[in-house]
């Protein structure tokens, strides 16, 4: 090409191709970060600034497909990136040859079940206490329920162990005796200490009788590329490993459910560990922007860079096509139901693409931030038998 007209045509052609490429990037939302507009504001308004940051997060794995093939490709690419962001790759590398050990500390007959207290070393330096509730009569194999607790000084509340009558009344009214409910439904139930609570608090927090060491855990974790959520997901996976070896568990019937912080662990654990059959997080499923991004929450909720990958519904989409039910209170002030509904609408699109729209439900309780067993066990029984 020697003429100016030929060069002009080439330039025009390249411009058109580049424009089409940029449009495609915006449609697929998979290439290149979002750009900021040049608009400026007078004065600093923190909520406006944070909202602007969220609007321009890359959201690399925000689900925008519709076919089963695209869904499978999306999951295959997204899950490793999420695990890496949580720090699970660090744990997997450092503990590749480590075999967790466990020992039983006590056992008692409750009449309706056997309650055992155990300790498992999920890392060489992390002895984690958990309560195992065994059904009295076990013939053959049956399902197991892992029930991580939320923010509470009493790490054994889910197993029906209370420090006072007031705590018992409050716990049972809020239906937080989750492991007791599970064993009464006929499942093995494991109620673990959530990392950062109980005996896994720092010495200072134990001395000061602090509820948790979530902030301390987060700060130390991020120095080495880990997160509290990743640590807790790791613990759940090690408990599943233990249960498969030591209990007559049907490995196709693994349930994870917990309230609030336990709901957080339930969602992320099921997203990362595909051995989990059914996930029922309570008082957590929402949007990041409408909950931890705009309201006061514990530091353990935050994963650095999570919105560069996607929203909470995208994380939950990694559970598809496995059964998922979000249990939310209509009056929950820290995980607003309007935002939960918005997230659920997006999640429904993912389950539809996965070919399993019936495996995704949202149960709305009439009260606030609490567990709703009526939204949990009918869903579990619908998808797996004991």
Task: Tell me about this structure.
There is one protein chain. By secondary structure, the protein is α/β, with parallel strands linked by helices. The protein is built from 14 helices and nine strands. The protein has helices spanning 4-28, 46-55, 68-86, 88-94, 165-173, 178-184, 203-207, 214-223, 228-246, 261-272, 306-309, 312-317, 337-353, 377-383, and strands spanning 102-109, 113-123, 126-135, 142-146, 188-192, 249-259, 278-282, 324-329, 360-365. A nine-stranded mixed β-sheet has the order 1-2-3-5-4-6-7-8-9, with helices on both faces. Strand 1 and strand 2 form a beta hairpin. The termini are far apart.
Feature tags:
disordered N terminus, 14 helices, 386 residues, single chain, alpha/beta
Oligomer: single chain
The main sheet orders its strands as: 1-2-3-5-4-6-7-8-9
Task: Note the beta-strand portion.
Answer: 15-25%
- How widely separated are the two ends? 75 Å
Low-confidence stretches: 1-31
Helicity range? 40-55%
Structural category is alpha/beta
Written as H for each helix and E for each strand, in order along the chain, the element string is: HHHHEEEEHHEHHHEHEHHEHEH
The largest β sheet comes out as: 9 strands, mixed
- pLDDT average, as an integer? 91
Rounded radius of gyration (Å): 23 Å
- Principal-axes shape call: globular
Helical stretch tally: 14
DSSP strand count:
9
């Amino acid at each position: 090409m020697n003429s100016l007209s030929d060069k002009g045509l080439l330039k025009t052609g390249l411009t058109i191709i580049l424009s089409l490429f940029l449009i495609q990037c915006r449609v697929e939302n998979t290439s290149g970060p979002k750009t900021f507009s040049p608009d400026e504001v007078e004065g600093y308004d923190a909520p406006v600034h944070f909202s602007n940051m969220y609007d321009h997060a890359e959201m690399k794995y925000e689900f925008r497909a519709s076919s089963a093939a695209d869904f499978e490709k999306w999951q295959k690419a997204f899950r490793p990136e999420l695990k890496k962001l949580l720090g699970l790759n660090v744990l997997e590398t450092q503990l590749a040859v480590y075999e967790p050990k466990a020992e039983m500390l006590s056992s008692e007959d409750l009449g309706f079940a056997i309650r055992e207290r155990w300790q498992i070393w999920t890392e060489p330096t992390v002895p984690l206490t958990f309560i195992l509730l065994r059904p009295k009569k076990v013939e053959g194999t049956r399902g197991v329920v892992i029930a991580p607790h939320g923010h509470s000084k009493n790490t054994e509340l889910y197993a029906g162990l209370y420090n006072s009558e007031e705590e018992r009344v409050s716990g049972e009214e809020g239906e937080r005796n989750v492991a007791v409910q599970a064993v009464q439904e006929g499942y093995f139930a494991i109620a673990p200490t959530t990392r950062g609570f109980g005996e896994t608090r720092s010495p200072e927090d134990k001395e000061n009788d602090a509820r948790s060491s979530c902030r301390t855990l987060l700060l130390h974790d991020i120095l080495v590329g880990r997160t509290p959520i990743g640590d807790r997901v790791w613990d759940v996976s090690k408990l599943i490993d233990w249960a498969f070896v030591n209990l007559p568990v049907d490995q196709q019937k693994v349930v994870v459910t917990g309230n609030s912080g336990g709901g957080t662990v339930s969602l992320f654990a099921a997203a990362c560990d595909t051995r989990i059959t059914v996930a029922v997080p309570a008082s957590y499923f929402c949007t990041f922007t409408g909950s931890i991004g705009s309201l006061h929450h514990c530091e353990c909720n935050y994963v650095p860079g999570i919105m560069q990958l996607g929203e909470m519904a995208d994380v939950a989409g990694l559970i598809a096509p496995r059964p998922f039910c979000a249990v939310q209170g209509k009056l929950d002030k820290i995980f607003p139901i309007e935002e939960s509904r918005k997230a659920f609408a997006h999640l429904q699109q993912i389950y539809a693409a996965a070919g399993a729209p019936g495996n995704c439900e949202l149960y709305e309780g009439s009260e606030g931030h609490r567990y709703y067993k009526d939204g949990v066990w009918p869903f579990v029984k619908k998808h797996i038998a004991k």
